[in-house]
Amino acid sequence: VVSVGHAPALAEDGASAMSCLRENTIDAVLIDVLLPGLSGHDVLAHMSADDALRAIPVLVVSAEDDSKIVIRAIEGGAAAYLSKPVDSNLLKAHLGACLAKKRRRDREREEHAELITSNEGLKCTEQAQEELTKMIVHDLNNALTNILGYAELALDLSTRGPIPEASLHKYLGI
């Protein structure tokens, strides 16, 4: 891994690997199936069940050539299964592809979070616009009601002469 330009975090067994994963920011995992304590399969199962670890790509490396073990690793969530001794070019290709895929997923996750934040801001803006519209409609309604009242008063004054006091109260809203 170092020879292909990466700085590994090392763990001696499955439990240490899980601790390392939870305590550090890990971009990819290179794990052997045969580990003391928690096996590589167990680590895969724990990672798949953990929302924080599920997206980390896992390359399984082992001297085991049994197809059942390979199938179990792939079905357990491994991105690839490499047989020992590992060809460094093959490792570099798989690791590069896994890291590129993880970067895309991380970017998508960030963009999704930004979209959610923007959407919440738009909802607040929309709510403020609705409230402002209601206030404007209310204020315009009051003004138009007053204008209509004064227009009716002017019409009455021009056609009937003196206005009865009851009508004045109605027109003036008192």
Question: Which stretches are low in confidence, meaning pLDDT under 50 for 5 or more residues running?
Answer: none
Structural class: mainly alpha
The main β sheet shows up as: 3 strands, parallel
Taking the alpha carbons of the first and last residues, their distance comes to 88 Å
Beta-strand segment tally: 3
Shape: rod-shaped
Radius of gyration: 36 Å
Indicate the proportion of strand residues: 5-15%
User: What share of the residues lie within helices?
Assistant: 55-70%
- What is the overall pLDDT average? 88
Number of helices: 5
Strand arrangement within the widest β-sheet reads 1-2-3
Order of helices and strands: HEHEHEHH
What is this structure, in a nutshell?
With 174 residues, the chain is mostly helical.
How would you sum up this structure, described in words?
The protein has helices at residues 14-23, 40-49, 67-75, 88-160, 165-172, and strands spanning 29-32, 58-62, 80-83. It is mainly alpha-helical. The protein has a 3-stranded parallel β-sheet, sandwiched between helices. β2, α3 (67-75) and β3 form a beta-alpha-beta unit. It is rod-shaped. The mean pLDDT is 88.
